[in-house]
Amino acid sequence: MEKSPEGGASISHEVTLSSVDSTLDVFFSSSGVLSSLSQGMFRSLRSAVRADTGVKEGRYFFEVQVLEAADNALLQVGFSTDRSPLLGQFRNRVAFDANGSFITSEPGASTELPEACKPFGRHVVGVLVELCQGPDAGTPGAVSVFIDGRSAGEERPLPPLMAQEALFPTLTFQNVTLAVNFGSVAWQALPDGCRIFGTLLEKDHARSSVCRSKQKELIVPVGLPGTGLHDYSRRLREENPDVLEIGDGMIEEWCLSSGLERSRAPNPEHSSDEPDLEAFGEFDPEARRTLGTLARLSGRSLVRSSVGLGLLEAERRALLQQHPDARKIAAVLLGSPPADFREWVKMRQRADIETKKVLGEEPPDEASETLCSGVPDAVDKALGEFARFTLPSRAEGFDEVRYEWAGEEAAKQELLAWQQQRKASHVVTGLKPGEWFHSQMEAWKKLKQALKQGQISFAKKADQNPALSGLAAEINLEDVKDVHNGDGKGTPIYANFKYEDWIVLSWRYELHLLCHSFLVDAADPERRGIPEGHVDHYWKVYFHHHFDPRKLGAKNLEEALKILKEPAQLIEAESGPRLLQSTLDNDAPFEVFVSNVEAYRRDRTRRIEAGDESAKLSFPKPQAKQAAAPAKVKQPAHPPPKPPAKAVPKQPSQPPKAPVPKKPREPSTPPPKALVKRIAKAPAKGGAATVSVAKAPQKRPMPEATLPLAKRPRPIGASGQPPIVKAPVAKRKPA
After folding, report:
1. pTM assigned to the model
2. Which of 169, 433, 495, 507 could lock 437 by a disulfide, CB 3.0 to 4.6 Å apart?
3. Where residue 268 falls among pLDDT bands split at 50, 70, 90?
4. Which domains does the chain have, with CATH numbers?
């Protein structure tokens, strides 16, 4: 490929790096110094930038030199096609790495050839591209690298697809500061027959299609989860590379494109709206603020993709206030997507499937209607305020509201239908019992106490006057004005309540209170009751324990309501599950519940007397709590030895008598054993005083060597005195 550059007019503009075809953290000066942010989280992120002018034919050359580099520096210098990805998987891009490798892209994969050239170091590095297009061209294209004006490696052929397009100088770097030369004068001697990029011929050059918009725009997509909102943003950025995504989704995409791996699996709250950035380990929360500032200063058009943000008016207004200099556009994505959008999704799916297969990863589901099928657009917690979701309007500050997929009226109906379905299938997050519930519950507790006390007082009167026992059954319930004095004679209408009646009364009122408290605290006129599957959740919210129909002898809510009869009922909804409602108004007096339970009791009594055994109620009674057994004192593993018991003489039945004086023994010889035994056992003679001595218990004879020291016979001392003989002592009987 020894073709010399042809003569002709050179380009009139200056070749430079593009301020819109780059990552957000890139900075370069008019003198050619290129750098990026390198503190905090940015130490781990790669930066990339592409030149605003490329070459479509000829031999052209540009130079770079490392000015400073950190320990984990990275530098890749090469060429790429217009609008190809700057980061991530190599596609339509070739580059020489500072460590001496050559990286090239193939369909669906990239290849790295180690030791393809000499390492860069701090030398001047030049990269040469040669493109020969047309039917007479032999080799379609190649790239080579030079260090300080000398060849540093073999010439490398371009992928066939790249050789047919214009190529633009591209730099990928991390934690380095560079000097870049696109000027008219080379720093080192040029290879034979080539030009430096600053002297491109008019016929050989191509301008980048990525250029700054005349009017900066802020685009806010508005759509429901699972309908392709994030896919719409992805397509928008592919077709308009100058448009920059802002938000956590952009940060996650940047981390993955920089080769960062998650140190753990994403948490359950991970979604496209709010990805789990903490899983990367390198995330710095301050990076959000830094990137937000850079986005505003870049002058580029922005898109903010978030299901939750786009549907909440307060969030939309706050976002618009942050970008006063941009033209604000709301893109409403409710309705059926157009055919071209669905075709684009299928095309991207096929490309993703091929890429995953090459990389040995599990391919995505081709049958999905969205690209983000593996990750939810938003989690249920983030959608908890769905009752306040609205569509945007110009009154919020938008300059334009576009209904991309359906008309305004159809979009409103779709949002309303989704909200109603959501209400039927999801609980109200953050719901707490309000003041009305607490006041009603306090009054109900006082009434129950008064009812129980009234029944006890009347029962005592009936014990003294049996004629009072039958008065409660004769009261006409329709004429009752005071449940404590139903007949005007002091007879309470609840005098005959049994255990089952009190249980029915409590359950009836508490279900009634739950139904109305939910409606009051939810404060949503579109909610007409509690979905059947959510009763246990709200019961725990209001009464702080689980809903347990087994206390009524029922298996589920439906059976419990059949036993209670009223006032709570399950009502069929237009769509979705049945709703729990109360047939009584929220201001129904307590006396109504007491009177209705008495009527229910009388009806059951008549049916039972008529032989209807099914009218009997049998509720399991709670078992009485057993008194706690006294705590056992933990004995030590090795208790201390007991002290020897003191000798306590047995008290004689007769008054004690004077002891018998002992006869002194001969000092020369010890007394014989027989004499000692006879003295210990001899009875008193002729009225002589005797000493009563307890008989020692019989013990197994022990060898003399093993006897305790206290029981061994004392040897005769030096004075010649015999040992003192002690009488056996009886042990104290245990008390």
Report:
1. 0.68
2. 433
3. confident
4. 17-207 (2.60.120.920), 217-425 (3.40.50), 435-615 (no CATH)
